[in-house]
Amino acid sequence: MDWNTLKVQKRSYIDIVKEKLGATDENGDHPVGLRKTFRRIVGRNKGNQNDKSKDLSASNRSNNSGYTEQFVTDQVLRQILLGENLLEIVYPDISIDTDNEFCPRCNFYLSDDDVVSGWKAGDDQEYKTECPNCLTEFVPHFCVQSTLPSFVGSRGPSSALFCERLSPWVLKKELRSVISGGIEDLLSPEWRERESKNAVLWWNLILSFMRYRMPFTFLLQGSFSSSLIAPTPDDGDKLDI
To answer: Mean pLDDT lowest for which of 8-12, 26-30, 83-87?
Structure first.
């Protein structure tokens, strides 16, 4: 994808993202809308959840914050915002739904933090999480959707992609088993579109980077002709680039 063809006016991706980032407020913080990009992408499907599921989970949802906020420096935050906004350009109306996980035994609602807490740290052979209510172990899932015409889900083009939720240790092992061409494979859109397993691994990687608030712009490099590994607008201004 050529970034400059995405808009009628010829502008670099830095110019467009700078426009999206906008000016900081009086406290020097980024606009609230951009600081909440992660919640927007992850929460886009919440309005479409099944009413029955909502009723079943109302009691334990009310006592669960769902996601632990991660705090980063301003420089890292700008890189994160750049990646999240570029992700929404590459995948229009992108939605990553992690808010629909219920224990198959007791029907207890698991927040994202619950799923992560249920993993066995350091175990790259364990694909299951543990329900905090009844201690049942099961494989968690999440769902990815986009209005991109070429997006291929679990049931073919334009459908949702249902992914097994992998712990960082399992994800590392699985990536090592499928990447034969080095980092170039991981960055290539063709690689993640070739097989559903590749797509599941790539989206697990994106979700992990987003959850732990780590920059992931480099993972989108294959979708752009211009280099994405560059200073963000504010950093560039300081360096006179």
So the answer is: 8-12
